[in-house]
Design a protein that fits this description.
Number of strands: 9
Strand order of the largest sheet: 2-1-9-8-7-6-5-4-3
CATH architecture: Alpha-Beta Barrel
Shape: globular
Radius of gyration: 18 Å
CATH superfamily: Aldolase class I
CATH class: Alpha Beta
Number of domains: 1
Largest sheet: 9 strands, parallel
């Protein structure tokens, strides 16, 4: 498992990428198999040991909305904190924020929508009302020195509304930043984006005065385009990339959403491009093989399958 790609340094891409590992939250939230709390804690610890410096630990949502993350309080109190590692948690409203603060969170994320329909299905809100819901959360977080990430879903397509105009996405994204979010992450929730679309949308944000250094991307791999879309975003200056160990993931409120870009697949590509990422690929593959065993299936990651002999 010592195989690594040949390195041919890229000249048109950033020199370092920060991988935001979303496996423990986005990866596990929609699994049919319930992962035991001790295994979730071990999963986070193993991801930290593999060198990941931003690990989305869990979500402080009402258990009836996402039953697989009903143990958020226990999970967040129990894993080993590593120096220099961020452990963001998702909070939908002030109730979730207060739970996160009690648990000791210093890094949160709010989860908005670019479309009206998904705002209603995912948040039980309207597109406009979601900003009113997030405003006190972001304000309270900033008062406490808590880092805030603003997620924006359905940026490239919506299963109910179809194509999402760029101006709609830019409007919603800049409103999240205007509330005080430290960074904005654009989500391709159902995995329909293509590289040209990514470039065009990021260009629209640049035209609106948004610095790509404050932006991240979150691609699902429904049509096998997540890695190509990530490289397109990187060429636009984006250096924050969400991935999930082993390609875990989905969305309980958008049934067409499949797994996220596999962390291992991105790490393999970045290594070959000479881009720093800080991740131990062998340790990460071992972790994904272990988790796939707990879930009773093989990993969808091509790199995991190649390096682990088909596991």
């Amino acid at each position: 498992m010592s195989v690594l790609p040949d390195v041919v340094p890229a000249t048109d891409l950033p020199g370092r990428i920060t991988i935001v590992e979303v496996g423990p939250r986005d990866g596990l939230q929609n699994e049919k198999a319930q992962v035991a709390t001790p295994a979730k804690i071990e999963f986070i610890d193993r991801l930290g040991a593999a060198g990941l410096t931003a690990i989305e630990a869990t979500s402080f949502v009402a258990p009836e909305w996402v039953p697989n993350l009903a143990d958020a309080d226990e999970v967040f109190r129990s894993f080993s904190r590593r120096p220099g590692v961020r452990y963001p948690v998702l909070v939908p409203n002030m109730v979730g924020f207060q739970r996160a603060v009690v648990a000791g969170a210093t890094d949160i994320a709010v989860f908005g929508s670019a479309t009206e329909t998904f705002a209603r299905k995912n948040l039980g809100s309207t597109l406009e009302a979601q900003f009113e819901m997030f405003a006190p959360v972001v304000a309270a977080a900033r008062e406490r020195g808590i880092h805030v990430r603003g997620y924006l879903s359905m940026c490239f397509g919506d299963p109910w509304e179809g194509r999402v105009p760029h101006e709609v996405v830019v409007s919603a994204g800049t409103r999240l930043l205007g509330l005080g979010c430290d960074e904005l992450c654009l989500g391709d929730t159902i995995g329909v984006a293509t590289a040209g679309q990514v470039t065009a949308l990021l260009g629209a944000f640049a035209d609106a005065g948004v610095d790509p250094a404050t932006m991240g991307v979150h691609f699902h791999d429904t049509y096998g385009q997540a890695l190509a879309n990530t490289l397109a975003a990187m060429r636009c200056g984006v250096t924050l990339v969400d991935t999930s160990a082993g390609g875990l993931g989905g969305c309980p409120f958008a049934k067409s959403a499949t797994g996220n870009l596999a962390t291992e697949d991105l790490v393999w590509a970045l290594t070959g491009l000479g881009i720093e990422h800080g991740v131990d690929l062998a340790a990460l593959v071992d972790t994904s093989v272990w988790m796939a065993g707990l879930l009773g299936r093989t990993s969808p990651s091509a790199v995991v399958r190649a390096l682990a002999g088909g596991h």
